[in-house]
Design brief:
heterodimer; A: 308 residues; alpha+beta; Rossmann fold; ten-stranded mixed sheet; two-stranded antiparallel ribbon; 13 strands; 26% helix; elongated; B: 345 residues; mainly alpha; two-stranded antiparallel sheet; 9 helices; 50% helix
């Protein structure tokens, strides 16, 4: 497709818009996720997939059919699907005797697999089991990660980055303060990862900042970390490379001193100070008569010396 | 008394303030890492597993979540706010967590040949209007595209210019010219793309093979030479380059009304030859020709025989013999027939 990008011109404005939406851009939009089932799935897995789909609602595709593939061995079908739907995140759910209730979270870079992390579901409470009013679909959630494992262990660090990527939603410049309802809380403890989803109620406190009370709404998972397939360091660095145009332009020649005064330097050419025009003072003006007198004196002095 | 009451009031006020602040303050050993652009908070404090096991899990997690969320909300409330259509909105900063991209950043497209030339000459792009006044249709029409203004292929009446051939189809000529322009534009577009992607495109007259043969190269050279405005008439030749042969007219005809005397001469000679009883036949030439033909036939027969024999090694049957006999007979007959021909003349 990339070879024929410029050669085959789109015939209508609609197809042109479609191709432009799929082309690489300077600032990218939300990453969409594909949620799919493996060869064999249990009730837990199917319900869990549906719940996560509802969490990620407008930017996700839920596939109904089962796909008999093993992502850790052969990722070609995943890459094909991502090319077709232009999704760069995926969630693959499966169930077999060896790995019961299995979730594989993954992301792709340039339609090739970047990271894949396999999590096993130990305990699961679905959305429908918790009978409270839910947040509207598409609200940007607040993400909280707790536990020192998310900072120390390499696998957990990648998992944290992957979960942020998965759940963060569109990047916005401003957020409505009353609309900060949804909170996703991840805790890493004793080798397990607990994911809870709460609805935050802003209560009155004396001052401007409200007091938070949480009410559990969403699906709650108890994950256990199984296999991982992480990208090599250079591929990971390549995926992070930002285009130069996005870097903020540095303004040169601006410096601040301790008081906050703004300074800049002005560069001048070399000045001939003898030709400097200063204020004119009439009294210091040199007169012609004086000059002549001085010369004569000098000459007389010279003559005197010779005689002597 | 007044002083006491004032002190009391102040103390009360302080207490109330402290209570209010208590409700939103959370004590943590290590400060959290905030990425407000992503609405993200990371708590690096150790989660005490003892507390976890003592209490009920859910309550412990909920209280932990409440504390962390409170701190995050405190951070968000510190941001500058503005009012947008009856809602108070906080302006978020840029997200600070580095996350991998979806696709590699787009490469800037290298300038096309025209763009390079325009930059060199300092030619600016002039913004043109989309609609142009069409005099014939007396309305505003597109500058280009479907139903364009002043479309010269769509005219119903074309005056034949004086210098043109009266039998030429002027309408077809205009359509053909447009097709040529479209094809040229398409070719240039593809060449620009090939140059941008650094794909090697063979020049005119050359095929995309690694090694070219001598005559292919010479053909390519001649094509390149004639592709100038004056059809290669003023192109200098390389020092050792020879003039290409087979360059003149393929057939030459005498003019219709030319030299009358030579025409008369030629026609009288022809009549003389027709009258004379001498056979207009060069014996030696005829005999040589016949001998050559015979040799060729024999060679062909030998070849066929040899090939046939090899094939027939498998099945030695009467059929094969019959075929061979027929073949020979046929060939003998053919040879005999041919020998008869010169006698007729």
């Amino acid at each position: 497709m990339t070879q024929l990008d410029g050669v085959v011109k789109p015939k209508s404005k609609r197809s042109k818009r479609f191709l432009e939406s799929r082309a690489p851009k300077l600032t990218e939009d939300v990453k969409s996720a594909m949620i799919m089932k493996g060869g064999n799935t249990s009730l837990t897995v199917t319900q869990a997939l549906k719940d996560i789909y509802s969490l990620k609602k407008p930017n996700a595709v839920l596939y109904k059919k089962k796909n008999i593939t093993r992502p850790f061995e052969d990722s070609t079908s995943l890459e094909f699907f991502s090319k077709k739907t232009d999704c760069s995140l995926f969630l693959f759910g499966s169930h077999n005797k060896k790995r019961p209730n299995n979730f594989i979270f993954g992301r792709l870079f340039d339609f090739h697999v970047l990271d894949m992390i396999e999590l096993g579901i130990e305990k699961y409470v679905s959305l429908s089991d918790i009978k409270t009013s839910k947040c509207p679909e598409g609200t940007k959630p607040m993400l909280v990660f707790a536990g020192e494992a998310f900072d120390t262990d390499n696998d957990h660090k990648r998992l944290k980055s992957l979960l942020i990527d998965f759940f963060r939603g569109p990047t916005v410049s401003a957020v409505r303060l009353a609309g900060l309802e949804h909170v996703l809380h991840f805790t890493a403890l004793e080798g397990k990862i607990y994911m809870r989803s709460y609805r935050s109620l802003l209560k009155k406190s004396g001052c401007r900042t409200p007091r938070i009370e949480l009410e559990e709404i969403g699906p709650s998972f108890d994950f256990v970390l199984r296999r991982t397939h992480l990208a090599s360091d250079d591929l990971y660095k390549l995926a992070h490379r930002q285009p130069k145009a996005l870097k903020p332009k540095k303004k040169k020649n601006i410096s601040h001193d301790a008081f906050g005064t703004k300074f800049g330097r002005v560069h001048m050419q070399k000045q001939d100070l003898s030709k400097l025009q200063t204020r004119k003072m009439k009294g210091l003006k040199k007169r012609r008569g004086e000059v002549v007198v001085e010369d004569q004196d000098v000459q007389a002095a010279k003559v005197a010396k010779v005689d002597g | 008394m007044a002083a006491c009451s004032v002190e009391q009031l102040l103390a009360k006020a302080e207490q109330e303030e402290a209570e209010k602040l208590k409700s939103i303050s959370v004590h943590k050993e290590l400060d959290l890492d905030f990425d407000v652009g992503n609405l993200l908070a990371c708590d690096k404090n150790r989660v005490e597993s003892r507390d976890f096991r003592e209490q009920k899990k859910e309550d412990f997690l909920r209280s932990l979540a409440r504390d962390n969320t409170q701190l995050l909300i405190n951070e968000i409330w510190k941001l500058p706010t503005e009012r947008v259509e009856e809602a108070i909105v906080a302006k978020l900063p840029e997200p600070s967590t580095p996350l991998p991209r979806e696709k590699p950043p787009p490469k800037p497209r290298p300038p096309t040949k025209w763009e390079q030339f325009a930059k060199l000459k300092g030619i600016q792009k002039k913004k043109k209007t989309n609609l142009v006044w069409d005099e014939n249709a007396k309305e505003w029409r597109r500058r280009w595209g479907y139903k364009r203004a002043n479309d010269d292929t769509k005219e119903w009446l074309i005056e034949v210019p004086e210098t043109a051939d009266p039998n030429e189809d002027q309408f077809a000529k205009r359509v053909k010219a447009k097709k040529e322009r479209v094809a040229k534009n398409e070719l240039n577009r593809l060449r620009n793309i090939a140059r941008a992607q650094k794909v090697k495109v063979p020049g005119v007259g050359l095929t995309s093979k690694a090694q070219q043969s001598k005559d292919e190269l010479s053909r390519a050279v001649s094509v390149a030479k004639t592709s100038t405005a004056s059809m290669g008439r003023f192109q200098d030749r390389l020092p050792k380059e020879k003039a290409p042969k087979n360059q003149g007219k393929k057939r030459k005809f005498e003019p219709l009304i030319g030299d009358f005397s030579s025409e008369k001469q030629r026609q009288l000679e022809l009549l003389k030859v027709m009258d004379s009883k001498k056979p207009k036949l060069d014996i030696t030439k005829a005999v040589n020709k016949q001998m050559r033909e015979d040799d060729r036939e024999e060679a062909a027969a030998k070849y066929k025989k040899g090939a046939g024999k090899k094939g027939r090694k498998g099945n030695m049957s009467g059929k094969g013999k019959g075929k061979g006999g027929k073949g020979k007979g046929g060939k003998a007959g053919g040879g005999g027939k041919k020998k008869g021909k010169p006698g007729k003349h």
